[in-house]
Amino acid sequence: MSKADLDFYESEDPIWNPALLTIPVPGIRRMVNLAADLEDVIHLSIGQPDMSAPKHVVDAAVEALQAGQTGYTMDAGLPELLDALAEYYSQRYQRPLSPENILITTGATEAIYLALTATSAPGREFIVPDPSFMLYAPLIRMNGGIVKSIPTRAENNHQLDPQEVIDAIDMNTYAIVLNSPSNPTGTIYPRETVEAIVKEAAYRGVYVISDEVYDHLVYDGREYPSVLSCCSDLDHVMVVSSFSKTFSMAGMRIGWMIASQGAIRKLRRYHMFTTTVANTPCQWAGVAALKGPRDFVDGMLVEYTRRRDRLVELVNETPHLTGYTPEGAFYLFPSLPEGIDGDNVALRMLKETRVCTIAGNTFGDSCSNALRISYSTSLDNIERAFERIIPWMKKQDF
Ligand SMILES: Cc1ncc(COP(=O)(O)O)c(C=O)c1O
């Protein structure tokens, strides 16, 4: 972390809105910046697919540019993409959706930003699993909202106990944030969990904000219980996804939100005042992704399943690490023994073995003894990384 970055986050210079203090120094950036100064580093820290987007998708963006598609689209998004998404979701979950239920955003990140900052306000509580993707809690806290964490554990595959979530709902609860498959744990919540939470939330007038960006990275032929397939209507749900992970389009920045027509109308206005519209040629690439062949996704699933299986074996062979089998995404979040500081371990491991992982405390307070290991890298890199990690861990006196 450079001094300039620290100054930005921690300065007491009165020009900055104090809300910026809720944004932590990002643990991922810190590790990746440190790694950049070292040689021969193997990265198990990567948060995006390690393949390029399919050719027909890239071609569609190039063709759109060449055809002069360089202006703004409609505020809700490119009509062709809205139609394609409505058709795709209606078929996938057998739930009729219309384009008016969808808003195209600049990646899932903007959709999450809109959902959380449009609902968070002083005193309002948001239930969030811990660990979770690092965007949620700061966006809630920035607007004065309160994060109520529900800790999950490696021993339990980081599954969420729906009763614990339900018991945490009180008069001040406004929303429950779900992310399945999860970053950083790779956990998929079973249908019973999602249904129980969504049903109780609707009954109590609480929103479920569901981040489903890994909805296609689901292994072992498992059925994916999207919130969209677990709710009776859209009145209390906002579902977020994007092309970033499914089609390796993270840099093309196209995501979306699915919600009731009323919620979408409200958020369209907010979207106009944040990013105006998403990138036009890349929305055309999104149409091509939805309408094109699925072999890219199928190939990615085969490759990631192989890597996951090997990573699970390697983690099980590693002293001091407790693993489990993640069912989706491309992360494993094993624990170190209770009380061991994952931050310190990740830092020393990077310096002494040149393997870059991300410390658990990046993703919440309950998991400071964990490491996030990404298998979005070649099997060869995974093998080489553990040839370094296992002997190093053997020497640690935890
Ligand atoms: C759980 C989760 N949600 C959202 C995002 C951001 O996705 P996008 O690139 O579509 O903004 C990520 C990216 O790593 C993620 O892991």
Please sum up the structure shown:
The chain has 398 residues and is of the alpha/beta class.
Radius of gyration: 21 Å
Main sheet attributes: strand count, strand direction, barrel closure: 7 strands, mixed
Count of the domains: 2
**What's the N-to-C terminus distance?**
28 Å
β-strand amount: 5-15%
Q: Would you give the CATH topology of the largest domain?
A: Aspartate Aminotransferase, domain 2
Q: What CATH architecture label of the largest domain applies?
A: 3-Layer(aba) Sandwich
Number of alpha- plus pi-helical segments:
13
Look at the structure and give the CATH class of the largest domain: Alpha Beta
Task: Please provide a written account of the structure.
With 398 residues, this protein is an alpha/beta fold. The chain folds into two domains: 3-52 and 296-394, Aspartate Aminotransferase, domain 1, CATH 3.90.1150; 55-291, Type I PLP-dependent aspartate aminotransferase-like (Major domain) (Aspartate Aminotransferase, domain 2), CATH 3.40.640.10. The protein has helices at 3-10, 27-36, 55-66, 79-93, 107-119, 136-142, 162-168, 191-204, 261-272, 280-291, 295-317, 342-353, 379-394, and strands at residues 42-43, 102-106, 125-130, 146-151, 173-179, 207-211, 237-242, 254-258, 331-332, 355-356, 358-359, 371-374. A seven-stranded mixed beta sheet has the order 2-8-7-6-5-3-4, sandwiched between helices. Strands 9-12-11 form a three-stranded antiparallel beta sheet. Helix 3 (55-66) runs antiparallel to helix 10 (280-291) and helix 11 (295-317) packs parallel to helix 13. Pyridoxal-5'-phosphate binds next to helix 5. Pyridoxal-5'-phosphate binds at residues 47, 107-109, 133, 179, 183, 211, 213, 242, 244, 250, 255.
